[in-house]
Amino acid sequence: MAAQCIEELYGAIEEFSVLLAAAELLASTAWEVEFTENMRANFKRHGPRTHLSSAQQSALERIAKQ
Description:
Elements: E1 4-5, H1 6-9, H2 13-26, H3 30-46, E2 51-52, H4 54-64
Helix pairs in contact: 2-4
């Protein structure tokens, strides 16, 4: 499946913001920390038009629910 933007994947930008904040707090490996930092940087740069692949979305949700 092609990447979709955050505004298409999540009903409200706040929902994504909370998910990203949770993932940032719960990131425990170097890879998870770098991944969440990159996601934050992309979100700051592109806002609700930030694109996520299904793999990125799955990884972000997995980290946030640890």
